Structure formats: C-alpha cells, structure tokens
Amino acid sequence: MPIALTGLLFALSACNVVQPAQEDPTRYFVLSDPAVPQGQAPAPSAGVRIGLKAVRLEGYLRGKQIVVRTGDNEIQFRDYRLWAEPLDAAIARVLRTRLLASPEVAQVYAEPFPPDQERDVDVSIEVRRFEGSAGAEGRYAASLSAAIEISTTGASPRVVAHKVFVAPAAAWDGRDFDRLARLLTADVSALAQDVLADLPARN
C-alpha cells in the first residue's frame, strides 16, 4: 500500500477516537433542616401566631452562585458552587422550622397568608449578607446579616421591633462549601432565636 494512502487511513482513524467524558465540576448545596428536639410537646393554643413574610434578599444574592466576599466592595461568584434551591425560600424554610420548634409559637403562616387565619404578628426579614468572607491573613468565615422587623396585625398595626442581626463569624477554610452551607444554616437558626426573643406575648 502506498505510504501516502497509509498515512491518510491513519489520520482518519485518529479522528474517530472518542475523547473521554469530562466530569462536570458543578456542585450543588442546600441549607440543612435544623435539628428539632425530639418528643417536644405541641405548642399551646395560646402561643403566638406568626405571619412570616417572604424573605427579601440583596440583589447580588438572588442568583444561584454561592458568594464569597473578598473585600468591603468586592465579591466573587463561584460559578461551579451553586445553591440547589432559591435562597429566599431556603432561608424561609429554616426560619419557619426553628420558629415552630419554640413552645412560645402556636403557628407560622407563610406569605401569601390564608385569609381565614388570624395572626398576632408579622415578621419581615431582609437578608443583607449571606456568604463566605475572606478576612485578614487569608482567614475565611461564614457571614450572615439581616434586618428584622416585627409588627402587630389588625386595623392599626405597629412596629414592635426593628433591628439588624449579625451572626458571629464562624471559621471556614475557604474551600469546603458543604461546611459553609452548614454554618449558614446555623446562622439562620440563630436569626430565628433573635426573632423569638422579641416576640410580644399574645394578648
């Protein structure tokens, strides 16, 4: 067989080699359901009835990418580290679970509220930070801050609490995003405890 023809056949066979499949580097994360004490007695009927309004997020937190803050005015979106569910819904789910676990709470309604159910207070949460953050000397931490507003309901509602909650910084290594998700879940649980501390007694 002529050398030229042999070379052509070799080149054609090389084109048919199937390249190995590349592993998708994308990883998805969720906020874990907080632990609820076992054997807890049902909430008393005299407990507070809460309306939990839809959680509001700062604009840069509304995407799927997990955010890492690298400076006061600089953030990074981790394209291959994504939230597996809308972040506002995930935070609301953890908040509701923690609030319902309190013996002081009879019910927690999610917005839109049932028209036939009375509420004692409405709770608004505006999340301002929900991310990993890089501090001095390359140290990383989980970071959550949120504005809390609690108001009465009825014909003449009034604000009974308005404040900013900042979770204590919890050390993170900057690489383990599963741990970051667990730390942020714990921060949301602490946020719920802060809400509970300011709930007025049911009349």
Protein architecture, described:
The protein has helices at residues 3-15, 87-100, 177-197, and strands spanning 27-29, 48-52, 56-57, 65-71, 74-83, 105-110, 121-134, 140-152, 159-166, 170-172. It has 203 residues and is α/β, with parallel strands linked by helices. It has a single domain, classed as ABC-type transport auxiliary lipoprotein component (Rossmann fold, 3-Layer(aba) Sandwich), CATH 3.40.50. Strands 1, 2, 3, 4, 5, 6, 7, 8, 9 and 10 form a ten-stranded mixed β-sheet that branches. A hairpin with a 6-residue loop joins β8 (140-152) and β9. α2 (87-100) packs across α3 (177-197). The N and C termini lie far apart (99 Å). The mean pLDDT is 88.
Task: Give a brief rundown of this model.
The protein has about 200 residues and is of the alpha/beta class. The protein is about 25% helix and about 35% strand. The protein has helices spanning about 5-15, 85-100, 175-195, and strands spanning about 25-30, 50, 55, 65-70, 75-85, 105-110, 120-135, 140-150, 160-165, 170.
What descriptive keywords fit this protein?
3 helices, Rossmann fold, ten-stranded mixed beta sheet, alpha/beta, 203 residues, elongated
What's the helix and strand layout?
Elements: H1 3-15, E1 27-29, E2 48-52, E3 56-57, E4 65-71, E5 74-83, H2 87-100, E6 105-110, E7 121-134, E8 140-152, E9 159-166, E10 170-172, H3 177-197
Parallel strand pairs: 1-5, 2-6, 2-7, 3-7, 4-7
Antiparallel strand pairs: 4-5, 7-8, 8-9, 8-10
